[in-house]
Write a structure and sequence with these properties.
Layout lengths: L10 H8 L3 H8 L3 H8 L7 H11 L12
Helix pairs in contact: 2-3
């Protein structure tokens, strides 16, 4: 049975909504594309500074990038 993977951010969803690709976002925030892929896939979490840079690049509030459990 597959293990349930906890989602800590919504970066992937917002990237799809905003039609922003990995390369474009990585250039905008000054990070390697592999780092952006890791953030997008929830295998690595961005620092607060990077989260704010991602939010600015995607033109959303940093809160919109967080997966807050209900």
């Amino acid at each position: 049975m597959p293990e349930h993977k906890e989602k800590y951010n919504r970066i992937k969803l917002v990237m799809v909504e905003k039609e922003v690709g990995v390369e474009e976002l990585s250039r905008a925030i000054g990070k390697h594309p592999q780092s952006v892929i890791a953030y997008r896939n929830n295998t690595m979490q961005p620092t607060l500074k990077t989260l704010f840079a991602i939010a600015k690049a995607l033109q959303v509030s940093p809160c919109e990038l967080l997966a807050i459990p209900s």
